[in-house]
């Protein structure tokens, strides 16, 4: 609990009311928003190091935007099980949290592609968004094993014409098709 208190003190020291107010006005529903930017949170993560227990505590503090952003940066990717990854991805509350979770943690897990396959067909737009964001991250690090299935899923998502997922699914189609012809 002492580490959590230290982290909260750091969040408070870096707080930016203007950014926090802007996030609230933009629809962020976290009860506690300090207004830190990602480089500040990365700096905090780097000073702490990897710690699965602490990451879980922070992730479970779903009232705090910064706790939800910091947690994936602290979790050792090799320790993330498929079941726990499912719980985390199902707990995302907005695209910022989804983007960060996929970029900082899930793309590095052994179950990343399995997560994509599961959530790319979800009824939830936000879960599909997270799945396609994860797929894009896998493509960027050249870690997508089944690019054909990813392309088919992305094409289907583009055809669905969902406002939330259209751009990222379109980017995946473009990325895979451009590398096929190169």
Principal-axes geometry comes out as globular
Mean pLDDT: 96
Secondary structure class reads mainly alpha
Secondary structure: number of strands: 0
Number of helices: 11
- Separation, N- and C-terminal Cα atoms: 52 Å
Order of helices and strands: HHHHHHHHHHH
Q: Unreliable runs, pLDDT <50, ≥5 residues?
A: none
How many separate structural domains?
Answer: 2
What's the alpha carbon Rg, rounded to whole Å? 17 Å
How is the biggest beta sheet arranged? none
Report the helical percentage.
55-70%
Approximately what portion of the residues adopt beta-strand conformation? under 5%
Protein traits:
182 residues, mainly alpha, globular
Topology readout:
Elements: H1 2-14, H2 17-25, H3 38-48, H4 52-60, H5 65-74, H6 82-90, H7 95-104, H8 112-119, H9 125-140, H10 147-160, H11 166-181
Helix pairs in contact: 3-5, 4-5, 5-7, 7-9, 8-9, 9-11, 10-11
Describe the structure.
The relative contact order is 0.09. The protein is mainly alpha-helical and 182 residues long. Helix 3 (38-48) packs across helix 5 (65-74). The protein has two domains: 1-75, no CATH class; 96-182, no CATH class. It has helices at 2-14, 17-25, 38-48, 52-60, 65-74, 82-90, 95-104, 112-119, 125-140, 147-160, 166-181.
